[in-house]
Amino acid sequence: MLACLVGLAALAGACERKVRQTADDTIVMLVEKAMKTADGRYTSNAYDQKLSRLVTRGLTTLDPLSLEPTLDLAAAIEMRSPTEAWVTLRPGLRFSTGTPLTADDVAFTYQSIIAPGSDSSLTTATREKFVDVTAVDARVVRFTLQAPLATLWSDLEVGIVSRAAADAKGQFAGGRVVGAGPYVLQDLTPQRARLVVNPYFDGVPPRTPKIEMRFVTAQPARALMMAGGAADLVQNAIQVDLLDDLAKRPRLVIETAPSVILTYLMMNHRDAALGNVRVRRAIAHAVDRPGIIAAKFGGRAVLATGLIAPTHWSYFGDVATYAYDVARAKALLDEAGYPDPDGEGPLPRLSLVYKTSSDQFRVAIARVIAAQLGAVGIAVEVRAFEFATMFADVKQGNYQLASMQTSEITDPDYLYIYFHSAQAPSKTNPNGTNRWFYANPAFDALCEAGRRELDRGKRLDLYRQAQAIFAQDVPVVPLWHEDNIAVRNITLQGYELSANARFGGLTVAAKP
């Protein structure tokens, strides 16, 4: 890291002499992981999803700040019965090829997801909600639901693709997905994605004709490229402890905004100790979250009380919280049956292994948490792995403690997705997302009811109760919501951060 800082300082003069090295008609954005597809049906990570949403559009979309679902390609959504929704498309819609976007394309997109043998990443979740999707006429689509569905508007955000441009297997040549988004995917390689403006986009035209996303996996390289003017923008991919140094560069601007993404400490409930709620509460009390936010994030994070962020429309904060309290943590461990075996001596109450990614910053945070747990008598061994290795272990339940971040939390239904007992990994559900094996029948019932309740007020009440149970049970320790952070060249203006960290701000950014 010192070498990186020295390098940044050496480049300061170059930054002064040359504002940027990128073309006036192109925004060059650095991305920390390679994108593999722009087809929303087959995305497997957040970066693919971000790319997809620049190339395709859904029947609905989310407000970038409130995350409330709003109409996009759809002109109206009408419930003909509790299990039948008719969606009317806006008139005159066209794909980036100039061909009309019709109800048949909408039906094709959803049918390809729920069809037998589909390998879409959305198949399981979509089949749970939709029985069939059929074109009624050129502008009307009928969705037949498995049951009344409170999340319908959010579920209609899937990017619509062109049936006519797809091959017999529903795929696109060279991965060049044909959608109706603000940009067209020109090419996608292991090194970069290049996009150009969609000439048939019916919304406000993007201000910059071209986007080039360069996939740069090395943290120091991204910082050096920004400092040297080789790129215009990077979002959430510069280590927080480098931001203050970059802020000194006259040609760089750092901007932050609240996020709905949660960083959390996961605990495997199948472990004898971690299955005890008193142990989990003790761990929550033992972690000095405000201190870590101040020291490691420079205050660029918000304390979490649960899965849902304070800025989200469904947030409920009147729940049990766990302030940093060493004495209380020790008392809870005593109550849980883990007394200190030798008073103030070196022997621990219990020992745990903490798995984390090999990212240097994340390892540093894990070590701070480990030291704080050690102060209450929990000996923690930190083991760092490449992310893919660590995530494979987590998915298999092969861990005790680990830390990760959620995807964008768009709807309170994510309480079901992450914590309902039916979502625990199993032979029949190997990709289950309840990877801590949490189970509480009362919580399950509330989340199930929340999926079916169409009255907004009643639904919010159900999720308030669910959030209260979550806080009592501490299935994971909600740590913080890290700010979204953009580092941009001063000549790139107008870029807007969104709460869900999408890249929609590219459409309004430009180099005057």
Low-confidence stretches: 1-7, 9-17
Number of strands: 19
Structural class determined from secondary elements: alpha+beta
Q: In one word, what is the shape?
A: globular
Written overview of the protein:
By secondary structure, this protein is an alpha+beta fold. Helix content is 30%, strand content 21%. The chain is built from 15 helices and 19 strands. It has helices at residues 2-17, 46-55, 103-114, 123-127, 152-155, 219-228, 240-247, 277-286, 289-297, 326-335, 360-374, 387-395, 414-419, 441-452, 456-473; strands at 26-31, 60-62, 69-71, 74-81, 84-89, 130-135, 140-145, 183-188, 192-197, 210-215, 233-235, 252-257, 263-267, 301-303, 350-357, 378-385, 401-405, 476-482, 484-489. It has a seven-stranded mixed β-sheet, sandwiched between helices. A hairpin with a 2-residue loop joins strand 4 and strand 5. Helix 1 (2-17) packs parallel to helix 6 (219-228), helix 8 (277-286) packs antiparallel against helix 10 and helix 14 (441-452) runs antiparallel to helix 15. It is globular and about 75 Å long. The two termini are 34 Å apart. The relative contact order is 0.16. The model is unreliable at 1-7 and 9-17 (pLDDT under 50).
Topology:
Blueprint: H1 2-17, E1 26-31, H2 46-55, E2 60-62, E3 69-71, E4 74-81, E5 84-89, H3 103-114, H4 123-127, E6 130-135, E7 140-145, H5 152-155, E8 183-188, E9 192-197, E10 210-215, H6 219-228, E11 233-235, H7 240-247, E12 252-257, E13 263-267, H8 277-286, H9 289-297, E14 301-303, H10 326-335, E15 350-357, H11 360-374, E16 378-385, H12 387-395, E17 401-405, H13 414-419, H14 441-452, H15 456-473, E18 476-482, E19 484-489
Parallel strand pairs: 1-10, 1-11, 15-16, 15-17
Antiparallel strand pairs: 2-3, 4-5, 5-7, 6-7, 8-9, 9-10, 11-19, 12-19, 13-17, 13-18, 14-18
Helix pairs in contact: 1-6, 8-10, 14-15
